[in-house]
C-alpha cells in the first residue's frame, strides 16, 4: 500500500532537522545546491524517479540515495549532483520519520 505524501495535521508539529513541510521532497533545497543551468535535467530525472516509484516515499528515499551514490562514484565525481540527490534522500527520510513519530502532546 502506498503511503500518502500529505502533511496532514500540523498541530503539535515538532521541527525535525531536514524536514520542511513546505518542501517534503527536498527538491527546492536540492535545486538550491545546483547551478541554475542544471535544474532542468535534475528536475526531469526527479520526475522520472517519482513516477517510477509511484510517489511511494520509501521507494523514493532509497532511489534518491542510489542516485547520490551513483553521482559520487562517477568519473569524474559529480559532487554537486551527489549532494542534490542526498538532499532529496535526507528530506524523504526526515518526512518518513516525521510520519512515523507519535503525535506531540
In short:
The chain has 105 residues and is mainly alpha-helical. It has helices spanning 27-33, 39-52, 57-73, 79-100.
Task: Label this structure with key terms.
105 residues
Would you kindly provide a written description of the structure presented here, covering whatever features stand out?
The structure is a single chain. The protein is an all-alpha fold. It has a domain at 27-97. Helices cover 57% and strands 0% of the residues. It has four helices and no strands. It has helices at 27-33, 39-52, 57-73, 79-100. The chain starts with 26 loop residues before the first helix and ends in a 5-residue tail after the last helix. The model is unreliable at 9-13 (pLDDT under 50).
**Principal-axes shape call:** globular
- What's the gyration radius in Å? 14 Å
What's the total helix number?
4
Distance between the termini: 28 Å
Overall average pLDDT: 84
The biggest sheet, with number of strands, parallel, antiparallel or mixed sense and barrel status, is: none
Secondary structure: helix percent: 55-70%
Note the beta-strand portion.
under 5%
State the total count of DSSP E strands. 0
- Secondary-structure element order, as H and E? HHHH
- Which spans of ≥5 residues are poorly predicted at pLDDT below 50? 9-13
* Helix/strand structural class: mainly alpha
Amino acid at each position: 500500500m502506498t503511503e500518502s505524501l500529505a502533511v496532514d495535521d500540523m498541530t503539535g508539529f515538532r521541527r525535525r532537522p531536514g524536514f520542511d513541510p513546505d518542501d517534503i521532497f527536498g527538491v527546492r533545497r536540492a535545486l538550491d545546491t545546483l547551478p541554475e543551468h542544471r535544474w532542468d535535467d535534475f528536475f526531469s530525472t526527479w520526475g522520472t524517479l517519482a513516477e517510477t516509484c509511484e510517489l511511494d516515499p520509501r521507494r523514493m528515499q532509497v532511489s534518491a540515495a542510489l542516485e547520490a551514490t551513483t553521482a559520487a562514484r562517477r568519473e569524474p565525481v559529480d559532487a554537486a549532483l551527489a549532494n542534490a540527490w542526498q538532499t532529496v534522500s535526507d528530506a524523504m527520510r526526515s518526512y518518513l520519520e516525521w510520519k512515523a513519530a507519535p503525535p506531540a502532546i
